[in-house]
Amino acid sequence: MYKNALATYQEVERETLSGRETEARILTKGAQKLQECQKNWDSDDRSKLLDEALRYNQRIWSIFQVELARDDNPLPKQLRSDLLRLSAFIDKRILETIAYPMAEKLTAVININRNIAAGLRQSVANP
């Protein structure tokens, strides 16, 4: 019974959230996954958690890159260009962390995700 109620709630939530709020939630989830890895860096399952968190964030930013590169993207050209450069930095940081895992390497991506999520939420609140 609870599973059906939860599934129904999640479906309604998906249908009613704005695109920007959805992006903010996804970025926040990515930051949370990375922060959880930092917090539990010495745990036995760090490798698994880190791989999952890095892949999740890599997917987020890959999707953003595709959307930002589209000619019909409604964002101003300079903002798109800046976000694409930022996404290239994130790609590089993720690959560096995969090759040479260090907890402190996650901080930049965590902060970027959170700051962009906050900006997206602010733009939803103040259109």
TrEMBL record:
Single biological process term from Gene Ontology: bacterial-type flagellum organization
Organism phylogeny: Bacteria, Pseudomonadati, Thermodesulfobacteriota, Desulfobacteria, Desulfobacterales
Keywords from the UniProt entry: Cell projection, Cilium, Flagellum
Record's protein name: Flagellar FlaF family protein
InterPro entries to which the protein is assigned, alphabetical: FlaF (IPR010845)
Record NCBIfam families: PRK12794.1
